[in-house]
Give the backbone structure.
Amino acid sequence: MNDLISTFHRLENNFFSMISLNQIDCGNLTAFASGVPAANLNPAIVHHIDELFSRSLDSCNIFYEQPKLPWALLLPEYLDNENVRKLLQNHSLTPNDKGVAMVISFNDDSFSSMKTTLTIKIMENDLQTWSIPLLYGFESTPEITEIYTARHQSASMKNQGLYHFSGFVNDTVVSSLSLSCLDGYARIDDVSTMPAEQKKGYATQLICAALKYALSLNINTCFLEASSSGLGVYKRIGFEELFINHYYESQ
């Protein structure tokens, strides 16, 4: 495993540790429980495979059964093989989605030509407004968004290193994201735009603003995980692919 992939996983674990109520080391994987009733926000992240993997999956399942949380197993492609897939099938876990781990290195000149039409604000004192694009952009529900926002509020109060950005047009919020930082690296999550305001470049402007902020913290490397729909946007900004995460959910 190369250094960038290892660092991606450190930032991944850091983000989910911040927004989770509980987590458990199951040996071959780390399971996070945010309390949000959405599988991708309760990830069990596989970090190695050995003869104890089946036992780790059993422990993971018990961990999520107690609070009755939906969850998703994240399997990096470099650990994927036919034997692993058969084992997951035996545990009633089936492929559901995939995400692309990405990285960018940047400097002061990286965004010199970027024109900003948004009013961009750091939202630590108003996460309710920050959450509005998440609700509509991700086609979520008020219940899920309320719980997820509360997890971010709690994390912000406990951690220096979690930042929330929103972009506004005429005082109306149109786009939001979060930026988490650890040991000189950053990770972007929660990139969302109101449906009526999509394909106008607002997410790109907001991401670039967050990266500029990271530069002010002496950070010049940032990670994120992209969905297939957002891949083109991130590539145009300069993010490069590292590997694919395969998502499995219980049948």
User: Anything to note?
Assistant: The mean pLDDT is 95. The chain has two domains: 3-99, 107-219.
